[in-house]
Amino acid sequence: MKNSMIIQGLMASALAVSAVPAMAQTMDHSAHQEQAEAMEMDHSAQGMNHADHMAAMNDDVAGAEAALVAYREALVARDGDAMDALFADESFVYENGKDEGSFTHYMEHHLGPELDAIASFTFGDPTVAVTRMGHLAYGRETYTYRIELTDGRVIEREGVATSVLAHDADGWKIVQYHSSSRAPRNR
């Protein structure tokens, strides 16, 4: 009888302990369900379902991609004002291992003077990919470029760039841009 009472006590303890995880899973699931319903209600209050919300997010990523493409197009056009409009006031530019400061400083002390010496600037094989993270996005680019200078010299390079963009009421602005290049390798 004593062994029977011990076995019953152990079984009762085992059942009590095994019930806790099952109840915790149920409670966690219901909490998750409540969060999901609250999020769905938030989307509904905005007149959006999940598919609409995801489409809006993708359109917004397209806006960040468009900002990076616009920067490349402004370089080709050698349009300093168009480039400046794409950067946040507090921005950071890094090029080939050098801290160039803000975009404004970069234009005044580096890129701006170079633009006057360029006869032609073309990009080849450009790729751009952007990933959004809330009000920020980061971009990754690869490309080749060819610069013909007014003195007849030609510069050909393979390049990469990474960027951080921030989104506000005015749209996407580049807050950090880092590019590097090298002479093309023989393939």
TrEMBL record:
The keyword S-adenosyl-L-methionine does not apply. Keywords: Signal. This is SnoaL-like domain-containing protein. It comes from Qipengyuania citrea LAMA 915. Residues 65-181 form the SnoaL-like domain. The keyword Signal applies. Residues 1-24 form the signal peptide. It holds the Pfam family SnoaL_3. It comes from the Bacteria.
